[in-house]
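Module 6 notes. Inverse folding takes a fixed backbone as the condition and produces residue identities as the prediction. Think of it as a translation problem where the source language is geometry and the target language is the twenty amino acids. Below is one complete input and output pair. Work through it position by position during the lab.
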């Protein structure tokens, strides 16, 4: 926490706004719009998953439709496709940003259309904070007239060409889950330049109540709005977001400086168009040194938590029957990739300890 979250939460209690609406929700949405710029509208929601679900509903994704989705991601990017009774079609990553490969995306679109089915939407991710090859993805989206959903759950504060991640999709989504760069304990947001999409999200997220004095519904609704208490935490967190980005990037720089000569490849900005919040610092093992699993187990023995890179969706038991277009990039990143401890509050001593641990695993490997 940054400091003023408690005061905003107290404000909710003092004014008796203990509901999924109120001044903190309005204030948090305003803060987000101010931060993102680019004339976007924002609807605060109960989670990032809810935001993806509403994005699909708003874009008209229905039973039997196909939706293209980045395979290398957290399952929450893909689950809402199945909530809609639609069919996920998974697309591999490219090796530069680790995000959706424009080449395989286009291949997938052409092939699905050959089978008589034009996909209804494309979900790409800014993984671990790294912006995707957004210009290429937007070009393909325009060429085939298929709307883009940007899953920027991990990328608040990242930019591409100087423009904030979370503003590039026809609809973009953010998450404020407890593990993200800033948190509301649990929460998310739907973002769009198209005001009617955001109005629709607000309507659907409050049980789709038609304007009438009685309760009247002509569509299926959801209970997806953010609590005014959680939004209070979010308002406090927005004050420290710029610090959090600096802290996460410092974590990345530290590991990079200490470890890149040891043969690891870090997920790093391909050129100066890309600016990552480095939500997590992630690397892949070198061709000679210890495997990522050897490193993970050695860290674990010292009570240091690290995690393999997301297991691609097309390899998940629950999604394995769905189509996939790729050439094994996401598989390789999963096999070789490790997420290092990346918390904003890690001290230089702690970062040194983790780096030294990894260096000592390498030296041990050389000796044995
Ligand atoms: C966290 C996350 C989500 C889901 O957000 P929640 O707020 O936890 O529902 C979706 N996509 C990605 C890539 C995420 O990391």
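Target side of the pair, the amino acids:
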């Amino acid at each position: 926490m940054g400091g003023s979250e408690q005061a905003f939460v107290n404000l909710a209690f003092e004014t008796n706004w203990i509901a999924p609406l109120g001044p903190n929700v309005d204030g948090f949405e305003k803060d987000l719009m101010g931060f993102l710029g680019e004339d976007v509208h924002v609807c605060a929601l109960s989670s990032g998953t809810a935001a993806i679900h509403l994005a699909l509903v708003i874009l008209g994704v229905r039973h039997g439709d196909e939706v293209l989705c980045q395979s290398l991601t957290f399952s929450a990017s893909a689950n809402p496709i199945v909530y809609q009774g639609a069919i996920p079609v998974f697309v591999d990553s490219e090796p530069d940003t680790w995000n959706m490969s424009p080449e395989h995306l286009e291949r997938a679109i052409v092939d699905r259309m050959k089978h008589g089915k034009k996909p209804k939407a494309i979900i790409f991710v800014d993984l671990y904070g790294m912006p995707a090859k957004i210009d290429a993805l937007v070009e393909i989206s325009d060429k085939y007239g298929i709307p883009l959903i940007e899953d920027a759950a991990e990328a608040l504060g990242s930019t591409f060409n100087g423009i904030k991640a979370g503003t590039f999709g026809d609809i973009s989504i953010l998450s404020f889950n407890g593990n993200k760069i800033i948190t509301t304990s649990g929460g998310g947001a739907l973002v769009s330049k198209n005001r009617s999409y955001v109005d629709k999200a607000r309507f659907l997220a409050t049980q789709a109540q038609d304007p009438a004095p009685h309760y009247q519904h002509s569509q299926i609704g959801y209970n997806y709005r953010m609590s005014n208490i959680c939004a209070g935490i979010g308002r406090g967190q927005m004050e420290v977001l710029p610090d959090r980005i600096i802290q996460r990037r410092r974590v990345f720089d530290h590991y990079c400086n200490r470890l890149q000569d040891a043969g690891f490849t870090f997920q790093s900005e391909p050129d100066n168009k890309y600016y990552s919040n480095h939500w997590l610092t992630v690397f892949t093992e070198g061709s000679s040194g210890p495997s990522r699993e050897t490193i993970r187990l050695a860290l674990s023995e010292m009570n240091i938590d690290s995690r393999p890179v997301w297991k691609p969706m097309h390899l998940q038991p629950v999604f394995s029957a769905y189509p996939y277009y790729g050439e094994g990039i996401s598989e390789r990143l999963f096999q070789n990739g490790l997420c290092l401890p990346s918390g904003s509050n890690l001290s230089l001593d702690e970062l040194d300890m983790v780096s030294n641990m990894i260096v000592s695993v390498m030296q041990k490997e050389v000796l044995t």
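Reference fact for the lab report: The two ends are 45 Å apart (CA to CA).
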